[in-house]
Specification:
four-stranded antiparallel β-sheet; binds flavin mononucleotide; alpha+beta; 13 helices; 4 strands; globular
């Protein structure tokens, strides 16, 4: 067994490459073993640590050096409660010791253009996409750094489902939008490493080929079910789709995706500066 083999087996269980002969690297091991945490102890992380995590997040690479991520920390109790109350099915949003919102910020570059007398139209699809990617990368950098400091986190994209209300609470101007919130605190309980799709389904070499997808998904469903079966009472939308005899990851995700979320997001963006041309 290499340093990585057990961790890779736990993450993928796909008999794929196991990091054999690669020098030990604690950071990579930690990333492969990472897990989302939704229950936190009452211990509040030090302010200095949070400042450091923000600095790390903002050190992420940024498209064209435009630096279109902004990070908003929600520390006001009333605002936290108001946001938490919008999502009763996810109580960790209201109670996590720390809550950040990672913002795609297409406004700042447009303002830079104004300050320098150069017209910048940043409500384009390119502006939206670049700002989204910058914010997502900044969030993921904070996630990995926080986890390496012993913290646990949970990204929260559900905030976009109530985008108008969340934007009002946080005073977000036009061209600034949440990519996701991030709950953060010291973990309570162990949680588990979530099995990923087999790498033969998610990696390609030289040309794209998903001809073996169906078999790979069936195999993944069975292996994931053996590790963490989805209980019968957690089957989604049984009224519409019926009770499934075998309810694996693919059935669950197909049902989830068939009921599309986020209907409020496009009209919000279109009425707040984005034209997507
Ligand atoms: C962009 C993004 C948004 C997410 N939004 C939510 C969310 O709103 N609520 C939640 O409980 N988890 C959310 N998650 C966490 C995912 O459900 C989690 O990463 C996934 O189930 C895989 O589990 P793992 O990270 O432990 O491997 C989000 C993750 C990402 C990357």
């Amino acid at each position: 067994m290499t340093d990585y083999a057990d961790l890779i087996e736990r993450r993928f269980g796909d008999s794929g490459p196991s990091g054999e002969s690669v020098a030990d690297n604690e950071f990579i091991r930690r990333v492969i073993a990472r897990k989302t945490v939704r229950r936190y102890s009452d211990t509040v992380p030090d302010e200095a640590l949070l400042d450091l995590l923000v600095a790390a997040a903002l050190s992420t690479s940024a498209k064209s050096d435009f630096q279109q991520a902004s990070i908003l920390r929600v520390s006001d109790g009333a605002k936290r409660a108001a946001i938490g109350a919008l999502f009763p099915a996810m109580p960790w949003i209201g109670v996590a010791p720390v809550f950040f919102v990672f913002l795609g910020d297409a406004r700042r570059l447009q303002r830079v253009g104004e300050l320098r007398g150069k017209p910048v139209r940043n409500g384009t699809l390119e502006g939206f996409f670049n700002a989204s990617v910058d914010a997502a990368l900044a969030m993921q950098t904070m996630i990995l750094c926080a986890e390496s400091a012993g913290l646990g986190v949970c990204p929260i994209s559900v905030v976009r489902n109530e985008i108008g209300k969340v934007a009002a609470i946080l005073n977000l101007p036009d061209l600034v939008f949440p990519v996701a919130g991030l709950c953060l605190g010291y973990p309570q309980g162990d949680g588990y490493v979530s099995l990923r799709l087999p790498r033969r389904a998610t990696t390609h070499r030289d040309s794209y080929d998903d001809s073996a997808l169906s078999d790979a998904i069936d195999d993944y469903d069975r292996r994931r079910d053996a590790r963490h079966a989805i209980p019968k009472d957690q089957q989604r939308a049984n009224k519409e789709f019926g009770e499934a005899a075998f309810y694996g990851w693919s059935e669950d995700k197909a049902r989830q995706a068939a009921k599309a979320e986020g209907a409020a997001f496009p009209p919000y963006l279109r009425s707040h500066g984005f034209i997507f041309d």
